[in-house]
Every structure is written in C-alpha cells, then in structure tokens.
Specification:
The structure holds two protein chains of two kinds. By secondary structure, chain A is mostly beta strands. Chain A is 0% helix and 54% strand. Chain A has no helices and eleven strands. In chain A, the strands form two sheets. In chain A, strands 2, 4, 5, 9, 10 and 11 form a six-stranded mixed beta sheet that branches. In chain A, 35% of the residues are buried. By secondary structure, chain B is an all-beta fold. Chain B is 0% helix and 56% strand. Chain B is built from no helices and eleven strands. Chain B has strands at 4-7, 10-13, 18-25, 31-37, 44-50, 53-57, 64-70, 73-79, 87-94, 104-105, 109-113. In chain B, the strands form two sheets. In chain B, strands 2, 4, 5, 6, 9, 10 and 11 form a seven-stranded mixed beta sheet that branches. Chain B has a four-stranded antiparallel beta sheet with strand order 1-3-8-7, with no helix packed on it. Chain B starts with a strand and ends with a strand. The mean pLDDT of chain B is 94. Classes of the chains: A mainly beta, B mainly beta.
Chain lengths: 112, 114
C-alpha cells in the first residue's frame, strides 16, 4: 500500500521567514496530494491540495510543488506569522474512493 | 452547510460504560470515515462507509462498533473500552466519487477512558 514520509518532524522559524515541509510517497498511482493544518484541539483543516497533472499551485502565502518523477511534494509558507504555528500533515490518495494516507506530521512553530 | 459536526466534544467514560459518538454532515457526501488520533501522531483510519455500507474496517477491535443510519449520519458505539483507547476520534466525509477528492474533517471528540 501507499506510504508517505514527511520531514522535518519539527520546524521553528522566525516570524516573516519562509517554512518548507517535504513529503515523499511510494505508490506512483497516487493522484491527489492534500495538505492539512491541525491546531490544538481541532480537526485537520485542508489548506491546499494538488493533483498529479499539475506541478505547482499557489494560494496567497502558501504554495505546493509536486515532482511526480521523484515522487515528492512540498509545502512552502512565505512570510510566516504566529498564527501559522500548528501541526501540518501531508497526505496522498490514489483516487476519490480510496483512503487518504497521512504523513507523520510536522510541528511548525513561528517565533515572534 | 460545509461542515462536519461531531458530538460530544469531550467524553469521559468508565471501562464498563456504553457510549456513542455522533457525526453529521449535510454536504451530500456519500463516504464517511472514522479516524483515531493519539497525541503527536497522524490520524489513523478505523472505518469507511460508502453509500451507507461498511467498505473498510481496519482490523478495529469489536469494542468499537460503527453504524451509518443514513447518508448524513455516522455513529461510533463504544463498549468495554480500555484506557489505551483514550484519543481524539475524528469523523470525515467525502464525495465517494473516483474523480472527486478532498475530505472534510470534524473537530473531533476527545475521549478519555478511566
């Protein structure tokens, strides 16, 4: 089955700096790669996603890149703010009717 | 309505109790999921319902019993739990369509077994 590796497990950045989180996946049939943000005491919230026919997607300060050949994808957050502090999970999915497989998560701390 | 609503938000139960967790969505999603999340870990899939039928059971102990009474509701019945079952239980839903992706998660039920 699919396996998703995520690095780093913790990341501290100064406010205003950029943060990058990287994930690799094992199943070349995976087609959809979402990123979730989870704040303390809350459920995961989808922040951005990318499909396998797209190499990059951007939404304001957040961007995701996908390299299908290397089977890795990354989350980029620019101009980080204290409210970006949370746990971020990457995930992969083969199709809409197969389960989502999560990476182990990255705890991001933005220091003011 | 673009939310998944879970009740209760917090639950403390003894090992001999029977309780139920409830999940509701009104987005027309036909797949619903139960996940278990321990502290500092990713969500772990427990059950998947697709069109109100149980399609995946990830070898979950029988003390957890899921139920999908209709396309909007998902329950998780709990009986004779152990302290190690204490966790955040998350419900999610999606369109169950091969070409439609994206899960919506609820905020979870924080379960403590004493």
């Amino acid at each position: 089955g699919e396996n998703v590796e995520q690095h780093p497990s913790t990341l501290s950045v100064q406010e205003g700096d950029s943060a990058v989180i990287k994930c690799t996946y094992s199943d070349s049939a995976s087609n959809y790669f979402p990123w979730y943000k989870q704040e303390l005491g809350k459920g995961p919230q989808l922040i951005i996603d990318i499909r396998s026919n797209v190499g990059e997607k951007k939404d304001q300060r957040i961007a995701v890149t996908l390299n299908k050949t290397a089977k890795h994808f990354s989350l980029h957050i620019t101009e980080t703010q204290p409210e970006d502090s949370a746990v971020y999970f990457c995930a992969a999915m083969i199709s809409g009717n197969t389960p989502l497989v999560f990476g182990k998560g990255t705890r991001l701390s933005v220091i003011a | 309505d673009t939310e998944v609503t879970q009740t209760p938000k917090h639950l403390v139960m003894g090992m001999t109790n029977k309780k139920s967790l409830k999940c509701e969505q009104h987005m027309g999603h036909r797949a619903m999921y139960w996940y278990k999340q321990k502290a500092k870990k990713p969500p772990e899939l427990m059950f998947v319902y697709s069109y109100e039928k149980l399609s995946i059971n990830e070898s979950v102990p029988s003390r957890f019993s899921p139920e999908c009474p209709n396309s909007s509701l998902l329950n998780l019945h709990l009986h004779a739990l152990q302290p190690e079952d204490s966790a955040l239980y998350l419900c999610a839903s999606s369109q169950a369509d091969r070409q439609s992706y994206g899960y919506t998660f609820g905020s979870g039920t924080r379960l403590t077994v004493v």
